[in-house]
Amino acid sequence: MPRRTRPTNLTLALFAENPVLSVSELTADIKASLEADFQNLYVQGEISNFKKYPSGHWYFTLKDANAQVSAVYFKNWNRLLRFDPENGLEVRVRGRLSVWEKSGNYQLNVESMEPVGVGALQLAFEQLARRLQEEGLFDEERKRPLPLLPRKIGIVTSPTGAVIRDMLNILGRRNANIDVLIAPVRVQGAGAAVEIAQAVKTLSDNAERFSIDAIIVGRGGGSMEDLWAFNEEIVARAIYASKVPVISAVGHETDFTIADYVADLRAPTPSVAAELVSTEADELRAHVEGLLAHLGRAMDYYLLQRRHELRDLVESQGFAEIIGTVLKLGSRVRELEMRAAMALKNNLHHAKLRVEAAQQHLRAADWRAPLAVSEARLQVSQQRLERAIQAKLERKWHQLSLTTGKLEMLSPLSVLSRGYALVRDELGQLVPQGAELRRGQNITLRFEDGDVGCQVIEPLK
User: Fold this and answer.
1) Are residues 291 and 266 part of one domain?
2) What distance in Å separates the CA atoms of residue 190 and residue 192, rounded to the nearest whole number?
3) CA end-to-end span of the chain, whole Å?
4) 8 Å CB contact between 221 and 251
């Protein structure tokens, strides 16, 4: 163990000549130097230890084969990022160095990030598509066919431009009986995805009320950035939740969006979507006429077959015997019908005679005498009942009077009316013996007409 030595005069002289920094001052100098010299840095590395915190800030390590640096991506910067960073992803970031003075560590404050080898939008597209596919939003078995003869079509697109005009022209030319309900939205830029999702939801929620049979969601062509609103998760989930079939018609034939995969049907262009949802009137008419002709030929063939079968049946050996049996049975049925009708008629006649006899008997009977006897009996019973009730009431009143007199005799109040008084102590308890009182004690005397407060001056001796 090394020996401790006292500082020499030379050591003291060196400290006196050079300024001595505190740890805080040293860290502050390093922070000022680093943050001044290492701004607007571009760094490439692999993400590891990536963590998202409830505050919205992201913390991770950026590393290569030989070194690593701590990094933070604050909420006010990362909210603009299109894709989700994940461990193992090679990225290129722009930022600046900062020093956390309490620990003396430095970190990279990231202000922008992009993946290496693939565009940020493409990576975001692939990540969202993979996640939604795992949830089942792309499953083919859940997709619905388009209605053959839609009454009304909802269109979610920009109200200006060639797209809406082309779709309306095609719908009007192919089938003028189809009504159109347009939900005007922005199709690119900030807030466009929210407008599109809300429009799809509104049309879906009111589909039954307004007889909407299908919805077209679309816009014209453009770059991936222009079409990005149709790659947003909020739009995909609105299409998935729609109560009526949705046709996605975004961009050109070579453009694919998340909306295309979720929708019940993808149209290469908005014009094709309008053709798919509307069957041409002439085509429909020709199809119906073809069905009628086919039905006519089928009926002719069916009747011809039945005619041949009937002829073969007539020519068979046992057919004449069958005809005779059928005729005999028909004659027997007609005979039974006549007998049943006659029996029913006779029964009705006898019932009518019995009803008439009963009516005559009722008219001949005199009910006045029995009614008078019953009325007299009722009056006698009523008088007896009234006398019994009166007698019982008198007995009860007499018993009540006797009981009341007894209560009045036993009541302390009746005693007080004869000049007596009740004595109570401070607690309101009765004092039966004068010996219980003491000098100066407060007592209460209860007379017939009220209470009087008193004080004992001379106790009982």
Assistant:
1) no
2) 6
3) 103
4) yes
